[in-house]
């Protein structure tokens, strides 16, 4: 697990966007794992700029999002599908058949979750997985205490996560209390992982991660200690070096 503090948040976002862009350029069949959240908004803005100013064939790439709120209408502006369209997909040359999300309705949930994992593992797992981090160390929506062996499934969100995500809703009561998320095992199958953390609210969890030598299920992101290719990018505010 390598940590790099890039100083300011826009530079950090630019760096991550360049890594995504280079991954796509290197491999036209690339499979990307994508994340949502406020931290990723400038990453997708930079990626859109790079894709507009450089000729790249996107027709064969596939993207897999980490999570989606359970039973939230996919057309809702609060859904992660809407987020991804708004920040990325609507601005680049990609067709809906190329981007995937965990299914978020009750019907056939277990089969659909299994199918999502199989789709991710089929032929080749994800080449580059992008991650944000919750203030409690969650990755995707894998909350503290999640077994490291977990696969894609429905989860209950913690109070802390509901509070943190309330800023994207009009009132806290509108925040869904459940979601469907890629599991920790699913995430760990990726070839390469970049976790981006910016802002002062992330400093404490990044510092904890930096100090850890053994993974602990109470801090889901600490599983990354077991992965051979993880880069954690921060700005000054989230930096572990202070
Ligand atoms: C949500 C997402 C996570 C994301 C986290 C941090 O809970 N499910 O994938 O990492 O929020 O979001 P933000 O970047 O807004 O702090």
From TrEMBL:
GO cellular component terms listed in the entry, alphabetical order: cytoplasm
Transmembrane segments: none
PROSITE patterns found in the cross-reference section: GLC_GALNAC_ISOMERASE (PS01161)
Keywords (A to Z) from UniProt: Carbohydrate metabolism, Hydrolase
Keyword Hydrolase included in the entry's annotation: yes
UniProt-listed Enzyme Commission number(s): 3.5.99.6
Molecular function terms, GO-annotated: glucosamine-6-phosphate deaminase activity; identical protein binding
EC main group: hydrolase
GO BP annotation list: carbohydrate metabolic process; glucosamine catabolic process; N-acetylglucosamine catabolic process; N-acetylneuraminate catabolic process
Entry superkingdom: Bacteria
Residues in Glucosamine/galactosamine-6-phosphate isomerase domain copies: 12-225
NCBIfam families: nagB
Protein known as: Glucosamine-6-phosphate deaminase
Organism, scientific name: Macrococcoides goetzii
Upper classification of the organism: Bacteria, Bacillati, Bacillota, Bacilli, Bacillales
